[in-house]
């Protein structure tokens, strides 16, 4: 089993406009310029201690895979990222990239806490998608 806790080698997976890294107990999702413009920010950092669940999705020749983290929010709820590709806690990948994301999934899953703490900073309300929803209401 691969672990990337404090002092271990970082685990990195490059997706479709995304780079996801697990290093020192923190998952970092970095977005390329075009993808970042769709979200409103280029980087999201999540402590593994705030992750409730991780789902690897499934990539095929015809559809992209979706690597999603569900996190505990400040109000105690769980942001179920798997519901939206527009969540700041998701990354899209192709069939060719699936092996790296599976390795990352295994490492994150092995580190999941029993009682997750709230994320230090929730970017969901700041995402371009959420701002557009609020402006329409």
Largest sheet features? 4 strands, antiparallel
Tally of individual helices: 3
| Overall pLDDT level | 81
* Largest sheet, spatial ordering of strands: 1-2-3-4
What structural class is derived from the secondary structure elements?
Answer: alpha+beta
Helicity level? 10-25%
- Overall form: globular
Poorly predicted regions are 1-5
How far apart, in Å, are the first and last alpha carbons?
Answer: 47 Å
Strand content: 25-35%
How would you spell out the order of helices and strands?
EEEHEEEEEHH
Written account of the structure:
The protein is α+β, with helices and mostly antiparallel strands. Helices cover 22% and strands 29% of the residues. The protein is built from 3 helices and 8 strands, in the order βββαβββββαα. It has a 4-stranded antiparallel β-sheet. Strands 5, 6, 7 and 8 form a 4-stranded antiparallel β-sheet that branches. Strand 2 (18-23) and strand 3 (26-31) form a beta hairpin. It is globular. Mean pLDDT is 81; it is low at 1-5.
In terms of topology, how is this protein built?
Elements: E1 11-14, E2 18-23, E3 26-31, H1 33-39, E4 43-47, E5 51-55, E6 65-72, E7 78-79, E8 90-93, H2 98-111, H3 128-136
Antiparallel strand pairs: 1-2, 2-3, 3-4, 5-6, 6-7, 6-8
Summary keywords:
137 residues; alpha+beta; 4-stranded antiparallel beta sheet; 3 helices; 8 strands; 22% helix; disordered N terminus
């Amino acid at each position: 089993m691969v672990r990337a806790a404090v002092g271990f080698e970082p685990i990195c997976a490059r997706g479709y406009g995304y780079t996801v890294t697990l290093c020192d107990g923190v998952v970092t999702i970095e977005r390329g310029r075009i993808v970042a413009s769709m979200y409103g920010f280029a980087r999201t950092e999540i402590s593994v201690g705030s992750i409730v669940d991780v789902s690897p999705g499934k990539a095929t020749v015809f559809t992209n895979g979706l690597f999603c983290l569900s996190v505990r929010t400040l109000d105690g709820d769980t942001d179920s990222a798997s519901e939206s590709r527009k969540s700041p806690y998701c990354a899209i990948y192709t069939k060719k990239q699936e092996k790296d994301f599976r390795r990352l999934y295994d490492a994150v899953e092995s580190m999941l806490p029993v009682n997750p703490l709230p994320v230090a900073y929730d970017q969901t309300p700041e995402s371009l998608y959420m701002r557009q929803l609020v402006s329409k209401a």
